[in-house]
Amino acid sequence: MRHALREMLRHWRERDSAEVAELLMSELVTNALVHTERGAVVTATVADSRLRVEVRDFVTTLPLPLARPETQPPAADDATHGRGLALVRTLADDWGIRSRPLGKVVWFEMNGEAAA
């Protein structure tokens, strides 16, 4: 999946931005797989110099980090968990969660332009 996104973004923005997009996609997919145990569907599109990645799962429960204030970091005892959405919040240009009849979609967008 990361390779497919990397190929799609090969001529979009600088390499660092494509790597950030890969990281954010991986975080969202990992969240979907770990917290729902029901699989996920990933969609990535580039239109008008804007990347949008959506990860759909099949559980309607919204992620817990949404209950935290935007400025509060994950608790120290969260170890390696609880940082995915914080990364998305920090590194994406826009992001959100949309409820669906059979689950939810967590998405992020990044602005970009053709690499020089």
Describe the protein.
By secondary structure, the chain is an alpha+beta fold. It has one domain (2-111): Heat Shock Protein 90 (2-Layer Sandwich). The protein contains three helices and four strands. It has a four-stranded antiparallel beta sheet with strand order 1-2-4-3, covered by helices on one side. Strand 3 and strand 4 form a beta hairpin. Helix 2 packs antiparallel against helix 3 (84-91). The longest helix has 22 residues, at 15-36. The two termini are 25 Å apart. The mean pLDDT is 80.
Write the layout of secondary structure elements.
Elements: H1 2-8, H2 15-36, E1 41-47, E2 50-57, H3 84-91, E3 94-100, E4 103-111
Antiparallel strand pairs: 1-2, 2-4, 3-4
User: What is the number of beta strands?
Assistant: 4
- Helix percent reads 25-40%
CATH class: Alpha Beta
Radius of gyration: 14 Å
Low-confidence stretches: none
> In terms of structural class, how would the helical and strand content be classed?
alpha+beta
What is the count of structural domains? 1
The main sheet orders its strands as 1-2-4-3
Count the DSSP helices.
Answer: 3
* Annotated CATH architecture: 2-Layer Sandwich
What can be said about this structure in brief?
Helix content is 32%, strand content 27%. It has helices at residues 2-8, 15-36, 84-91, and strands spanning 41-47, 50-57, 94-100, 103-111.
Structural descriptors:
single chain, 116 residues, alpha+beta, Heat Shock Protein 90, four-stranded antiparallel β-sheet, 3 helices, 32% helix
